[in-house]
Design a protein that fits this description.
Elements lengths: L3 E6 L3 H12 L4 E4 L11 E4 L2 E4 L6 E3 L2 H8 L12 E4 L2 E4 L4 H8 L4 H15 L7 H9 L1 H16 L29 E3 L6 H8 L3 E3 L4 H7 L4 E6 L3 H4 L9 E11 L9 E4 L8 E4 L11 E9 L9 E2 L3 H16 L3 E3 L1 H4 L6 H16 L5
The chain binds dihydroflavine-adenine dinucleotide.
């Protein structure tokens, strides 16, 4: 039996970067992945010549120049700028909240006009000490933006009324008084031409990878296969849920191919009314300015999570954070295991932050990679 330096559990971005860099340092790695494909949640799949974001829309954005240069070794990025739209009843608004949104909502033209409406609504509500998310949102942006663009969407995301969600969930609601629909403020942004899976294929090139392989089964019959383990699965599962389950919100995706070339004219359209059951529709071809004759769309539904569902968004409330703290104390005492990635660290990580974290883990193990 081959002996490896590292057994890497999970072929997502974290595990794949670790494997790639460890191999460059002369280490032997085995990557095991319980799904039938590599790339974890950034997996894209070709349908109708379109790269479909199977686990939800993924737009790469970062202000970290080193991370941008790092990821550009593996793919060329296009100039996609995320400019989502929001549908509320019969109306269509630009996001994030900016002068285009306000102009549509109130017929205003100048920043001063928009500011005075928002300030008047905030003043009229008179909320100093918000007791829930509804009050907090109104205190920050006023009643109109809250009711049309935040309320229904947030209630669908959380599966609860905004009046039952704690205020601290929203700390800031960025409002932009320019006609700028770019959702992100980051310096660099784009979509890898050809999809994300190709990036991970390049990272894992020449590395042993076993798909359809669950760590907990695999390790029973291969106990001494590697000197160290990099575990990017759920940390509570690793410790057999000893202190209880860490909780998540889950998602359900309904994907459909349509016999038309353009369904909604934009990659991301949010549905902010509570009556529409899905939160958004993604039209994948628009991430890459596709000209294919057909189109693929995905409706995204926010769902409650149970242990058998795919975990998507960690619920970082006090209960779960305390629980994670207990698991991370166990993890720190677990010799020869590095816990990483969104599941191993129970954290919502954007891709650029996963790259930073994976490179930091490699640096810690094997020496400097990235300044
Ligand atoms: P990831 O989950 O990708 O990989 C972990 C892997 O481990 C999985 O493939 C899993 O199957 C495997 N695994 C788990 N347990 C195992 C076991 N027991 N045995 C074997 N394998 C096991 N970021 C961004 O920058 N821009 C964006 O637009 C978005 N959009 C976005 C949308 C949605 C809906 C979500 C939920 C997330 C985003 N993200 C994002 C975040 C992005 O998805 C995230 O940063 C990376 O996918 C995290 O990579 P990891 O390697 O940490 O986890």
């Amino acid at each position: 039996m081959t002996h490896y330096d590292y057994l890497i559990v999970g072929a997502g971005l974290f595990g794949s970067i670790f494997a790639y860099e460890a191999k460059r340092k002369g280490k032997r790695c085995l990557v095991i992945e319980k799904r039938k494909h590599i790339a974890g949640n950034i997996y894209t799949e070709n349908r109708e010549g379109i790269n479909v974001h199977v686990y939800g829309a993924h737009i790469f954005h970062t202000s970290n120049k080193s991370v941008w240069e790092y990821i550009n070794q593996f793919a060329e990025f296009n100039h996609f700028v995320n400019s989502p739209m929001a549908v509320y009843e019969k109306e269509l608004y630009n996001l994030p909240f900016n002068m285009n949104t306000f102009s549509k909502m109130w017929g205003v033209r100048t920043p001063d006009e928009a500011k005075s409406i928002i300030e008047a609504q905030i003043k009229e509500a008179g909320i100093d000490n918000p007791q829930n998310l509804e009050q907090q949102a109104i205190r920050l942006v006023g009643k109109d933006i809250y009711e049309k663009l935040i309320k229904g969407y947030t209630e669908k995301q959380w599966g609860r009324k905004c009046t039952e969600i704690p205020a601290f969930i929203i700390k800031r609601l960025p409002v932009r008084f320019t006609y700028d629909n770019n959702y992100f403020n980051d310096r660099y942004q784009g979509i890898p031409i050809g999809g994300y899976t190709g990036i991970v294929e390049k990272m894992l090139d020449g590395i042993d990878v076993k798909l359809n392989t669950d760590y907990f089964e695999f390790i029973k019959s291969n106990p001494g296969i590697a000197s160290k383990t990099v575990f990017t699965g759920p940390i509570d599962r690793y410790f057999n849920y000893r202190f209880g389950d860490l909780e998540y919100r889950s998602l359900r995706f309904e994907t459909e191919t349509l016999d038309k070339d353009n369904y909604q004219g934009n990659a991301v359209v949010n549905y902010t009314s509570a009556e529409i059951p899905y939160t958004r529709i993604i039209e994948h071809k628009h991430f890459e300015f596709g000209q294919q004759p057909r189109t693929v769309i995905t409706r995204e539904y926010s769902e409650d999570w149970t242990r058998n569902d795919e975990p998507y968004y960690p619920i970082n409330d006090t209960r779960n954070n305390d629980l994670y703290h207990k698991y991370s104390e166990l993890a720190a005492r677990e010799g020869n295991v590095i816990f990483g990635g969104r599941l191993g660290q129970y954290k919502y990580y954007d891709m650029d932050k996963v790259i930073e974290a994976a490179l930091a883990a490699v640096n810690n193990e094997l020496g400097q990679i990235l300044e």
